[in-house]
Amino acid sequence: MWDPPLVTDTQPSKQQSFLRSITEPSKTAVLTMELQEGVVGAGALLPALSQEVERVGMLDVVRRVCGAARDAGARVVHCTAVARADGAGAVQNCKIFALNERVRKERGASPMELGTSGADLVAGLEDHRDIVVPRLHGMTPFTSTALDQILRNLGVTTVVATGVSVNLGIIGMSLSALDLGYQVVVVRDAVAGLPAEYAEAVMANSLSMIATIVTADDLLEAWGAW
Length: 226
Fold this sequence. Notes:
With 226 residues, this protein is an alpha/beta fold. It has nine helices and six strands. Helix content is 42%, strand content 17%. Strand 4 (158-164), helix 7 (166-179) and strand 5 (183-192) form a beta-alpha-beta unit. The longest helix is centred in the N-terminal third of the chain and has 15 residues, at 58-72. The radius of gyration is 19 Å and the shape is globular. The model is unreliable at 1-10 (pLDDT under 50).
């Protein structure tokens, strides 16, 4: 009995095609979330988070994604959390903000205080073409900042989420972007959270319902098609 030859499907999968369609570089911005020395560096507010970021090698992945975005013609926007020396403009209305205030009083400065290295982006992340959008208060970068207006003025319709943490900032960023009408892409190896098992559960059960979850390789392959 004759068996027909196997046919190799060289066409991109539906998922790949969809990813390419929503990440056209001219309409896409990579958002980094709080990748600062005072959050994921040596002076981190939560040292365990910094250790987790180092363990999974997340920063190198984010640098790679940002570099590829610039090369493809997509924007890179860094969303940072900063603090004044006197703490003005912020309020301690949740546990993590109260922790930051306690650390500010104990150390004499907030881990992300303006004018200190803690407010700076980690080394090798920023490029002169990038935009930095800081905030004095809040958990998510779209609240009470000009981030939405900046993205719309740039013609952005898709945001790519990277940074920390999955269970707070990343899910908040993603939900806000979703509500504002953006397509949301989360790069699973360019984000981190604690505990690691819980971060994975958030990715699987929450973020997967509101965003397109990809790897850095998936995204770079999609950009390679443009």
